[in-house]
Amino acid sequence: MKKYSIPKLFGNTPKARILDFFIGLRSFDYTKTFVANELGITKVTVFKIWKDLVKKKIIVKTRTIGRAEYHKLNIENPFVKALIDFDYALSCAAADNACKVPIKIKTRK
User: Fold this and answer.
1) Would 82 be classed as within a structural domain?
2) What is the per-residue DSSP string for 35-104?
3) Domain count, the chain
4) Which of 21, 34, 43, 98 ranks highest by number of CB atoms within 10 Å?
């Protein structure tokens, strides 16, 4: 785990780990099963958290392949934008304030 990360600062809870996962790998979409396996969290726990993240539009469905639904981080959500900026600031702190410019999130229209 990174020296400064969301789970490290706010507790190594499944929700914090899932958010950290999606923030770090926000360019791609994932299934619940993949996320559960990658993080070592039970599927039942991931499914409960997933429902809340979708309801709050933190993650959004991108596609369906067979019965598998893929989701990715909703970078249009203001809360998500703030989380990404916060994660960037944590990374800068870990790099001894080497970062001087705030992150700019590019979105497709």
Assistant:
1) yes
2) HHHHHT--HHHHHHHHHHHHHTTSEEEEEEETTEEEEEE-TTSHHHHHHHHHHHHHHHHHTTT---S---
3) 1
4) 21
